[in-house]
Amino acid sequence: MKGFYRLLNLEFAKWLAFIATVCAVAIFAPPIMLHRQLKYFSEYAVNERFEEVYASSGSVLLFLILFALVCAFFLITVYADYWGSKSVYTYLTLPVRREALYFSKAAALVIGLLLLLTAQLIGIRLGYSLYESKVAGYGDGQFVMRNGYFLAMIRSEFFRLLLPLNLSRILSSLGLLLVTATGLYYGALCERSRKYSGFVVVAAAAWLGIRVLGYRLNEMSHYGEPTGLYMSTVLLFALSGYFVWHGLRLVRRGAIA
Amino acid sequence: MDKIKRHAALPALAAAIAILVALAASTYQAKDSGTFEVRDLLGSREAIGDVVIRGELRDGVHQTRFRIEEGRMRADTELFEQPKQAYLYRYVPGSPVRYGGMEYFVQNESSMHTITSRRITEQGYSIPVGSAEVVPPPMRRDPEDSNDGVRLANPPEYGLARIGDSVYYTVPVSSRSIGSSAIYELKFYQWGFRTGIDPQDYAHRKLADIPLDANESGQGAGIEILGLEAVGDRLALIFAENGALHVRSYDVRTGEPLGEATVPEFRLPAREGDSGASGVASFYESYEAYPDHERSTLTLNFRRGSSVANRIDMTALSFGFSGGVKLADRTDLSFSDGEEDTYSGISLLSYRDGKLYAIRSYRGPETEQPRALFDIVRPKHLYAYVYEQSRLIYKGEIVTDWNEDNIRAYNQSPYQGSFGYDQTDYRYFTNIVVE
Description:
Order of helices and strands of chain A: HHHHHHHHHH
Strand content of chain A: under 5%
Distance between the termini of chain A: 23 Å
Largest sheet of chain A: none
Shape of chain A: elongated
Number of strands of chain B: 27
Helix content of chain B: under 10%
Mean pLDDT of chain A: 92
Mean pLDDT of chain B: 88
Largest sheet of chain B: 6 strands, antiparallel
Low-confidence stretches of chain B: none
Shape of chain B: globular
Low-confidence stretches of chain A: none
Distance between the termini of chain B: 68 Å
Oligomer: heterodimer
Order of helices and strands of chain B: HHEEEEEEEEEEEEEEEEEEEEEEEEEEE
Largest interface: A-B, 54 and 50 residues
Number of domains of chain A: 2
Structural class of chain B: mainly beta
């Protein structure tokens, strides 16, 4: 356990500067982008709802970019062990269980993704305050929606994806987060151990993840009966479980050397 | 710095989770922060103390159930697991009528009326389930007469009524029909399987005859069937005859008439030989019916021709059905609180214990929010009225934030092109009940 704790912190230390920058961007860039978007808002203009201004300001796209950056950075931390000093050999000979090695890297990625999510949500909250103070400044406050932050959070599909408030959607979002983290790592491990067949499972997970994302970002237009998405959530968790299990096997066997 | 680096991971994780949970909790708690109150505009709120007014304010993603009990408002918000399509239903002539979770649609061809039943799904659309056919006896008077086309007094859906699982139908014939009409109990076969069935097995049952002798002469007002309604386990046939409104009750098993109430001085507008100058108000045929099955009462709401601009004049007639039929209350209603909201307006009447309760919503005047240039996004208001012995004793507004959903449409100008309106983005009242 102690070995895992040390390895995790060692791993996370590589992340610190990077994730701090990413979080700072996620918190402060959306308000700046919103500010630019709100420039032409006035009592004579059409004042879109917050969630629409947020999306049209590019903040949703920004999240996607930051998310991709975090994933890319993770891959860099994995592959960096094979470059130069080839520290992967050092790691594999450390007197700790190899599971600790696996979980330290995976946990660092999960923490990184959670931090990005949190920062993005703080950015949304800041952005809303900015929006509210802007639209409250003219037209005798007629442009302010009471309880507007709550309404934006439940009406926007993107916000509902980041901060779901129903059990089924919380589980679904959690499943997406886990399958991204474990799948990404598993893909890298497969490549390193030349088990290219593993990519089939990664591709299946990606396909499922995209299906779920597509559904959740367009829930209003589904004509069928409402669904709890439990089937897909169970599959996401099962795939995550498989990635961890097989990833651990690859690491334990030293196949990644 | 080094020390921080060596222990940063877990605090970072804890901080992330703590902030996430705090944000989620504070957002979730805000669900009940919206405005929900009753504002008294006239009289004392004690007037609604005897009843419970409940309903829902919803959009595509959440709904707030409210309940006004003993004059106090309680509201509770639920977030939908998955967004739902708008559940807006307002009967307009020609559209299907809804009873319970079903809707019924009548297609009338010259000799045969086909009634289709459809099940309403969670998402608000409906799926056809069954069909039934009625072949009424020929009732045409004079095919050569240029007025013979006007054979129905009301759209055919007015002739439908449902009691339990049984559906009854009569053709709402006009005074141009002669012979004998009837009330039928329908027998539905599986929708779409018309060719596979033996029509004999699905023939309707004739419950009662409605003689149309008064129309034989072709002179005078004659008899016009306005509609059929269900009150508890009785059928109520609503018809106009000789300048009076009649409501006749039928036993649903035997078809025996159980009583009849008559409202004199009931004139339908623009009838043949009617000079229109008699000084008696004319009532439009397309009434609204509000049955109370528990108390065996039926309130019919007839719109009257109004001589004043921006005023909606109506007459509510409430009938008691316990033992025969009795006219229990007649209240003339005049509303000038706004324009009728023909799209999502609420209109509800309920008569009990000598009081008539009306719940109605209107679109405010154009001047109320000059920034709202499209009619559909003009501010709306929901009012509760109470009448006792034809006198308005209470008026209150149910105040919520629903009009703020229209802010996004302020300054949207019809001259700059179109503007997309999706009811799932705008809150609306639905399922309002007085109990």
